[in-house]
Amino acid sequence: MVGLKEELLKSIWHAFTALDLDRSGKVLSHNLCTVLNVPHDPVALEEHFRDDDEGPVSNQGYMPYLNKFILEKVQGNFDKVEFNRMCWTLCAKKNLSKSPLVISDEDAFKVWVIFNFLSEDKYPLIIVPEEIEYLLKKITEAMGAGWQQEQFDHYKIALNTSREGLSAWELIDLIGSGQFSKGMDRQTVSMAINEVFNELILDVLKQGYMLKKGHKRKNWMERWFVLKPNIISYYVSEDLKDKKGDIILDGNCCVEALPDRDGKKCLFLIKCLDKTFEISASDKKKKQEWIQAIQTTVNLLRAGSPPPHKEARQKRKELRQKLLAEQEELERQMKELQAANENKQKELEAVRKQLEAAAARAAEEEKKRLQTQVELQDRFSLELEREKMVRQKMEEQVAQKSSELEQYLQRVRELEEMYKQLQEALEDEKQARQDEETVRKLQARLLEEESAKRAELEKWHLQQQQTIQMTEAEKQELENQRIIKEQALQVAMQQLKQLELERKEALEQYEEVKKKLETAANNTKSWKDKVAHHEGLIRLIEPGSKNPHLITNWGPAAFTEAELEERQKSWKGKKATSE
Q1: Overall number of domains in the chain
Q2: What is the CA radius of gyration of the chain?
Q3: Displacement of CA 294 from its chain's centroid (Å)
Q4: Which residues, at least 6 apart from 121, have a Cβ–Cβ distance to it below 8 Å?
Q5: Considering the entire predicted model, what is its pTM?
């Protein structure tokens, strides 16, 4: 029933769109109920078409009424041709072209019905190029002409560039223009359209004159046979006005070829459950065609398959839907690929911008690095110059310290020379005192004093020798310090490359050397002070004192009077201690 409803809707759609529904909706509904053998419902009709917001031009529209009150009640017991003719009558006057056509109005009606059969199940209705080609091929074959594929290909290309397909009225104009039936007369074209109409719309699988044997009188009569998917009807003539009977076909029927007999040739037999029909074809070719057509129909009934042309139409539609689905899938994939490509392009553009930004940052960083490098080089150059100056100053200081050390060593050598001279002076003094002691033997007191004085002088001499020994030790220590300083100086010279640490170490060593030099200078000064304290031992090389001196028989004494008193006190103290 779903397929029947779809076929009905296509014809109704044409009538529906051609009418002013506010004025003619009731007429259309009434006519549909009449031709479809559906009971009238005047109450529902008046209720639906009342003049308010729920009318057919409102949001509710005409389709709910059509489905509920008409199409759902259709049983199939109606004349399809009459139904289509009623719809055609309502829409043809408004839409049919006024230009002259090579086909009659009846042929145009049949083309319109064929269009509804072959058109797509979407609105507005169109017939796609593949179905146009199928229809034109069948009409051309029915006319007995050759199919011009190249001509149709050019027409198809021109059609595809402007639209998806043709409307019913454009299809009528195409066939009625004679573009694909040139050289054929109107009658041939009309017969071809009628043959295609019979096959596609009336389900006529085969038709023609044959002889049939009667059941009662057993005589042979010529009849016009019409084969449909489940019935064979036979008429007096091909105008189908006087129908003589039907042969009901089902899966239990069979067809068999019979041998020639009783002067009849090309015989075959149709066996049904209740009857058997003997038929004679005009020749062997027609006999074989009829046997094959009837057997194919029976096989289709057994398999429950639709008629060949409907099955072929369904297969073509499924193929188109499959191709359309594949095309849509391909378009979807292309869109996805295009979107992915656009995303990739955007990503590449973003990466390119990032790379450009990174390159710009790298260039800026390189510029900064070069600038920093130049600044560091300048700074290192300044520091190197500064270090060179520091090194030069240190070398000058080292040279100065070396010169000071050399002067110090020179002074030490002079001091040693002075020590030698002092020792010689002491020896001379000792010899002089020995001589003086020999002279003073006659003077006991003086001799005793001279003896004590000599003992004391010897004591002082020992102290002086100890002092000299101490000076020798200090000299050795100074010599060791000098060697250490020279080694430190060499280490400082070797470590000049390590500027900061070497400078610190050199400064520390310098401070250490300075302290030691100060210590040595202090020691030397202390020694000089000691020598100066005992200046009586070296009076021979100094100007004489202006104080009065003691006079002995041999000349001036070696001691002053104050010194002599001091010596006497010392002697008396020692004597008292010894006693």
Answers
A1: 2
A2: 75
A3: 67
A4: 6
A5: 0.55
pLDDT of 502 higher than 50: yes
Question: Which strands, in side-by-side order, build the sheet including 254-258?
Answer: 243-248, 231-235, 220-228, 206-213, 276-280, 267-271, 254-258
Distance CA 359, CA 80 (A): 80
163 pLDDT tier (thresholds 50, 70, 90): confident
Q: How far is CA 535 from the centre of its chain?
A: 106
CA distances, 549 to each of 440, 535, 558 (Å): 17, 16, 8
Helices 21-35, 2-18: axis angle to 10 degrees equals 140
**CATH of residue 210:** 2.30.29.30
Q: Which of 95, 113, 131 is the last residue of a domain?
A: 95
- Specify if 173 maps to a domain: no
Mapped to the 3 state alphabet, what secondary structure does 233-275 carry?
A: EEECCCCCCCEEEEEECCCCCEEEEECCECCECCEEEEECCCC
Look at residues 131, 202, 206 and name the one whose alpha carbon lies nearest to residue 165.
131
* Inter-residue contact 5 to 71 (CB < 8 Å): yes
Distance, CA of 446 to CA of 88 (rounded, Å): 186
Q: Is residue 86 part of a domain?
A: yes
Q: Which residues contact 287 (CB under 8 A, 6 or more apart)?
A: 257, 266, 267, 268, 281
Estimate the share of the chain in helix, then strand, then coil, as percent rounded to the nearest 5.
Answer: 70, 10, 20
Residue 165 has pLDDT above 60, yes or no: yes
Contact 200, 114 (CB under 8 A): yes
Residue span of the structural domain in which 279 resides: 206-306
Report which secondary-structure segment, H or E, holds 94.
helix 80-95
pLDDT, tens digit, 9 for 90 and up, residues 47-83: 766 654 444 444 356 777 777 778 888 887 788 889 8
**Dihedral of the CA atoms 558, 561, 566, 569 (nearest 10)?**
110
Residue 248 to residue 245: CA distance in whole angstroms: 10
Query: Which of these three, 76, 95, 114, is where a domain ends?
Result: 95
Query: Quick check: is 403 in a domain?
Result: no
Q: Which residue in 290, 304, 311, 84 sits closest to 197, CA to CA?
A: 84
Q: Would residue 161 count as lying in a domain?
A: no
